[in-house]
Write a structure and sequence with these properties.
The protein has 350 residues and is mainly α. It has helices spanning 2-32, 40-48, 56-80, 84-105, 109-128, 133-157, 174-198, 203-215, 222-249, 253-273, 278-297, 304-341, 343-349. Helices cover 81% and strands 0% of the residues. The model is unreliable at 1-7 and 218-222 (pLDDT under 50).
Amino acid sequence: MAGTSGIQDIDLKRVLRFACGVSCAFLIAQLLAWPLAYVTPVLTALLLLDPAPLALRTAGKVLVTAVMSILAGYLIATGLTPYPIIFILAFGLLLFRLYLYLLMSGAHFIGITGALLGCLLMPVLVRVHPDVAAGVALGIVVDLGVAMMISWVSFALFPVRSVPTAPSAKTIPLAIALGLSARLTWVAMPLFVAFLVFEWTNALTLIFAVLFATGMNSQGGAAQGITSLIGNVLLGGATMLLCYELLVAAPFLPFLGLMIMTLCVIFGAQILKGGRHRQIWWSGLSALLLLLGSALASEDVTTTGKLIDRGGMILLATLYVVFAYNFLDLVEHALTKLRTKDPFMKVAGQ
């Protein structure tokens, strides 16, 4: 019985650490409201899912990678804007190389997220909203820094009993990393081009699509796509609408903090418990934090109808990512089948 009680205490401590850290990040983001502040709670949640705090050396690498990605996206956008075809090709190569580096280096997922946000958002903003590009670039770095600080404080308040040995970075063979980088680039590029061509200004949609596409299994697959859709739409979207209506009736900061804390305890307990439904709960929580945080920080979201419209855009982006992964799976399967049947294709493949 003593051993069972100890396990329960550790689980309770992890849930409280997760809930307190994420809800604190949400409130700080709402109070200070720097550009893209609503991404901070999701980044904090990623860090608090780890069994131990982020090492200082890893944190430094994350920030350096994010800054370099922002600079690369900015330089390509400013230098090649007059040449759209060359600009898109150069950016596609940059994105591919970034994916390859992140996969080969075994970077922490928060580093991958920060680098991709900087790399994808900067070219769009430089072309569509150059006046806010610098603020958003700084906002991404602030997001990462605040998330790290909150996670370290959370681990200090709810310490682990024994710090596990940090696992060595997972190295992926070059051949596999090349294939994964190509898949991720093919998924991200059409959405990126659409933002440029139609001059869409809803950065939240691109952010959500980037997080969803990167977090989705590299194999894609209809099963995982449906699982993520259930989490994003049913859990995240429905809970977000309910929270928004409650805040309209009771627009008080203590009520907001208590509500977010309660939701983080509920969602966090299910995520940390693991199991086959873990991805549903994580997708739901990330969608809830992004949608509710951006809605409360945005001045143009004043009615439930506008909130539903914004959720609809994110749903379309999610459907696109699922479709893109499954389309690539079908193409890959068809080519593999063709190579096995056609001797000429088999020789050409070699």
